[in-house]
């Protein structure tokens, strides 16, 4: 199956993602790293009052494993890369289970935090479908409800710049593979004591069709049908006191597989996040 570009591009390369994440980390940790005062950033204060204002960026080390052909060929880089995969996946697994265990009201009571895969995959599939339908129909109001603000702006601009009278229809022809979770992260929100960022990345392999219309007629040659693989990142914020979601799940971005080259660049973001955490502690 050929992996095509998304019909409606929601992806960003890792370099751009790292720059955006680094900027978001600096913004949402305020002056914690640079100053001795521990006053939280205004954006964090807004997040406490309104969960919809929570910082939204793809969490560092969102590790989507690439095909084996992209693995390092030399022994030492290969071992380092494999260790990175093992470390990240193990830490993600343990942290998620730790929070799930912490959400148990009592030893024999069911955890309040559910990590079941099926509902998370269903949520991602629904948002993915709604997003593409909203883009195709030009429904910016619906789009704003289901995608992160950083993602919404360029998509809304794209809709606004369409020629007058030009519309699209989008169709999900089929899933080429069963959608699956490829990254699952729960991470404390810097500067708060009771908020956690929850992000799930689902790989969606599908065949999609788009047709453009102008004044009610199909534009000749506009029909596109592609086989795509999209790693869709959705996110929300939860309270570690009530374990309830504080805002609706939204699509944050789509990400590319974490190649060895991208993994090396990612470490700069990880270092910055560690410094921010140390500075705000």
What does this structure look like?
40% of the residues lie in helices and 22% in strands. With 281 residues, it is of the alpha+beta class. The chain has a single domain (14-30, 42-103, 111-280), classed as Nuclear Transport Factor 2, Chain: A (Roll). Helix 4 (117-137) runs antiparallel to helix 5 (140-146). InterPro entries: Mba1, Mba1_Saccharomycetales, mtLSU_mL45. Pfam families: MBA1. One of its GO terms (molecular function) is ribosome binding.
What is the annotated CATH architecture?
Roll
CATH topology: Nuclear Transport Factor 2, Chain: A
Q: Give the DSSP E fraction (strand runs of 2 or more residues).
A: 15-25%
Please give the CATH class: Alpha Beta
Please summarize the sheet with the most strands: 6 strands, antiparallel
What does this entry show, briefly?
The chain has 281 residues and is of the alpha+beta class. Helices cover 40% and strands 22% of the residues.
List the helices and strands and how they pair.
Layout: H1 14-28, H2 42-49, H3 75-102, H4 117-137, H5 140-146, H6 149-160, E1 166-175, E2 180-188, E3 195-214, E4 217-218, E5 224-239, E6 250-255, H7 260-280
Antiparallel strand pairs: 1-3, 2-3, 3-4, 3-5, 5-6
Helix pairs in contact: 1-7, 4-5
């Amino acid at each position: 199956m050929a992996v095509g570009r998304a019909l409606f591009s929601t992806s960003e390369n890792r370099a751009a993602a790292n720059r955006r994440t680094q900027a978001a980390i600096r913004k949402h940790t305020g002056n914690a790293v640079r100053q001795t005062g521990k006053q939280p950033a205004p954006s964090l204060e807004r997040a406490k009052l309104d969960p919809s204002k929570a910082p939204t960026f793809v969490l560092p080390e969102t590790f989507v494993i690439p095909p084996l052909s992209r693995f390092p060929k030399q022994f030492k880089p290969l071992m380092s890369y494999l260790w990175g995969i093992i470390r990240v996946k193990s830490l993600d697994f343990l942290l998620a289970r730790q929070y799930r265990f912490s959400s148990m009201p009592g030893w024999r009571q069911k955890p309040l935090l559910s990590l079941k895969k099926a509902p998370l995959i269903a949520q991602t599939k629904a948002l993915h479908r709604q997003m593409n339908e909203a883009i195709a129909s030009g429904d910016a109001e619906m789009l704003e409800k289901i995608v992160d603000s950083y993602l919404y702006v360029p998509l809304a601009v794209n809709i606004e710049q369409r020629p007058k009278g030009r519309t699209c229809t989008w169709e999900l022809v089929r899933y080429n593979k069963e959608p699956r979770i490829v990254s699952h992260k729960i991470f404390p929100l810097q500067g708060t004591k009771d908020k956690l960022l929850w992000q799930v990345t689902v790989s969606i392999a599908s065949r999609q069709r788009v047709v453009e219309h102008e004044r009610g007629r199909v534009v000749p040659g506009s029909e596109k049908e592609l086989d795509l693989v999209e790693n869709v990142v959705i996110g929300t914020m939860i309270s570690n006191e009530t374990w309830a979601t504080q805002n609706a799940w939204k699509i944050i971005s789509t990400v590319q597989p974490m190649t060895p080259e991208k993994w090396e660049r990612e470490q700069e973001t990880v270092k910055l996040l560690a410094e921010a955490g140390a500075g705000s502690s």
